[in-house]
Specification:
The chain has eleven helices and no strands. The protein is mainly α. The chain crosses the membrane at residues 96-114, 163-184, 219-238, 258-276, 282-304.
């Protein structure tokens, strides 16, 4: 059978499967078997076609649904963190990458602007903050700001502020992604100018060992929140084969999953900033340990583990197809 005829005969069925919701376990299993049958046929006769890739993705989606339904009653909380969220990261790896690139470019813009314009740092960070930091540097304690106030109160305020920034960055994506990019620009320029300001004062090494204790998780989470906002905005701009309203619903759902997944990261970053960063005299090995563990966790959980999990699911789907035939 020619591929065009094969697609024509099954297009409506595949669309029905793609848009189906709240299926019973029996209906879900029946749909999965039908899709794997079509996938096996496509792999046999059109192994490198887009039809085969589409069916493989559809089969993987049904496989995930079956797995989630199986576990949902007993350990829904566990499967969200170990299964659903990592797969959302992998599914939207391109928006996450774009968010990182936007943030990196805006940070560089902030640093260069601070380097070539003496008034830029005060414009971005404010006169009060710059004057206070200059005074702390003169006293030999450049990060004295982190030692002020009650640790728990500082933790609470920072956590609230960070989560508010995250939600704003995500929700602003509804404005065709421009709102999210604007938020990334604000935060990126602020970080870049702050980094250059401390570098110009000759305390870049202390910066890495102090501010980045909490900054590694905090900045990473802001970038990921930017990715969630781009997912939302892109679903409105590029609905693909879906109705625009359905695409936006799916984009909002995936973005919200990412937003929920970021809350523990922001809370951990706020804990570090409120309780740990203030101890600027801590041993070098301890600072490096926190930095390395934080960075390793982000790379593993957002990039490496999702790719491994997706590959495992696709391999399982292929094994099921081969067994069926």
């Amino acid at each position: 059978m020619r591929e065009a005829l094969f697609v024509k005969q099954n297009t409506q069925k595949w669309k029905d499967y793609e848009n189906s919701k709240d299926l019973s376990p029996d209906e879900l299993a029946e749909s999965f078997i039908s899709i794997t049958d079509d996938l096996a046929y496509a792999k046999t006769f059109y192994p490198k076609s887009n039809t085969t890739k589409y069916l493989n993705g559809l089969a993987a989606t049904f496989h995930q649904s079956i797995y989630k339904n199986k576990k949902e009653k007993t350990n829904r909380f566990i499967t969200f963190w170990s299964f659903e969220l990592p797969l959302v990261f992998y599914k939207h790896r391109k928006p996450l990458l774009y968010s990182f690139l936007f943030f990196a470019v805006f940070s560089l813009m902030g640093a260069l602007s601070a380097k070539y314009d003496n008034t830029f740092i005060r414009l971005i960070l404010g006169d009060d903050y710059v004057n206070m930091t200059n005074a702390n540097i003169a006293k030999g304690d450049p990060f004295g700001v982190y030692k002020q106030g009650n640790s728990f109160l500082m933790f609470s305020q920072i956590a609230f502020n960070n989560i508010a920034v995250e939600l704003t960055t995500f929700i602003m994506g509804i404005f065709l992604s421009v709102g999210t990019i604007y938020q990334l620009m604000n935060n990126g320029i602020m970080l870049g100018s702050f980094e250059y300001y401390l570098y110009s004062k000759g305390i870049s090494a202390q910066l890495m060992l102090t501010v980045w204790i909490h900054g590694t998780l905090e900045i990473s989470a802001i970038i990921i929140a930017g990715g969630a906002g781009l997912v939302l905005g892109n679903s409105l701009l590029f609905p693909k084969t879906y109705k625009r309203i359905d695409a936006v619903k799916m984009g909002a759902k995936d973005g919200l999953k990412i937003g929920i997944g970021l809350i523990p990261i922001f809370l951990t970053a706020a804990f570090f900033e409120g309780f740990v960063t203030r101890h600027t005299e801590m041993p070098l090995w301890l600072s490096l340990t926190i930095l390395i563990l934080s960075f390793t966790f982000i790379i593993w959980y957002v990039i490496l583990y999702p790719a491994t999990l997706n590959r495992k699911i696709n391999n399982n789907t292929t094994t099921i197809n081969e067994t069926a035939y």
